[in-house]
Amino acid sequence: MVQIWAHRGCSTRCPENTLSAFREACRYEIAGIELDIQLTADGELVVIHDERVDRTTDGHGMVKDFTLKQLQALHIAAPQGMTERIPTMAEVFDLLAPVCYDRGLLINIELKNSKVPYEGMEEKILTLTGQKGLSDYVVYSSFNPDSVRKIKELNPTVQTGILADKLSDCCALEAATRADALHCDVDCLDVENLRGKTQAPVRAWNVSEPFYPCMLCGAPYDLTKLEAHFVTDMIVNQPELYCPVYRDSVCSQSAKKVHERINGYLLNDV
Ligand code: G3P
Ligand code: CA
């Protein structure tokens, strides 16, 4: 069965890569959550997709030119007229840790270091993950093959994925990067007889789905068809289309605690 991951959290119902998007994702029976990290001017790991803040916040400029304090003064428009701020990776770990421990939720951390070559990003994220006790729950990925290889060299026990548009490019980079998984565009499954070449999981993604605040319900992918094309996992903006909500379990208790904590300090907390 194809496993479902929440792409930038539940990024159709909530602003992408925010604590509310991750909180929402924790409600569903998903395998994991995907998110993106960048580095601030003062070397803090923050969760935001773009190198610039312009698209998702009310600010202008490059993430690398903001200190954490400056960055967290920016506002992200959220539902019901509320605002959120760019979370740190540490905050996201604190939010998700109980769910990782209780239900084995995985976190796919994409290092956004193809356009800005963030010096020391690999060491920083490995250290932080270790400090939070979450090494067994993280998959690191990047479009930068040198970075994927470096992560594995720094710690051969961690899980990695090589990102590329085409599955064939992922395959071509698998050996050199020692990647554990292939993360490709769902529209570029261009390898026949994949299992004759590799047993690595294929985690497919698609960035052209609707993003928040588009509330239109997209059509779900045909997972059976994707499975026939060797896809093992789908990273989607709308996991709610595929997965039931957790109910009546220790997991939902954890999720409830997470929700309470988030509701306590997230919105308008700037
Ligand atoms: O990790 C898969 C996917 O997130 C890559 O594309 O642009 O959404 O980071 P993007
Ligand atoms: Ca990503």
Within CATH, the superfamily carries the name Phosphatidylinositol (PI) phosphodiesterase
Can you name the CATH architecture?
Alpha-Beta Barrel
Shape: globular
Helix content: 25-40%
Biggest beta sheet attributes: 8 strands, parallel, barrel
The helix tally amounts to 8
- Structural class by SSE content: alpha/beta
Q: Could you please say which CATH topology applies here? A: TIM Barrel
Note poorly predicted spans.
258-270
Distance between the termini: 42 Å
Write structural notes for this entry.
The chain has one domain (3-268): Alpha-Beta Barrel (TIM Barrel). The protein is built from 8 helices and 11 strands. The chain has helices at residues 19-25, 68-71, 89-103, 121-131, 145-154, 167-177, 223-228, 250-265, and strands at residues 3-7, 32-39, 45-47, 76-77, 83-84, 106-111, 138-142, 159-164, 181-185, 202-205, 233-236. It has an 8-stranded parallel beta barrel with strand order 1-2-6-7-8-9-10-11. Strands 4-5 form a two-stranded antiparallel sheet. The radius of gyration is 18 Å and the shape is globular. Bound molecules: SN-glycerol-3-phosphate (G3P) and calcium ion. Calcium ion (CA) is lined by residues 34, 36, 110.
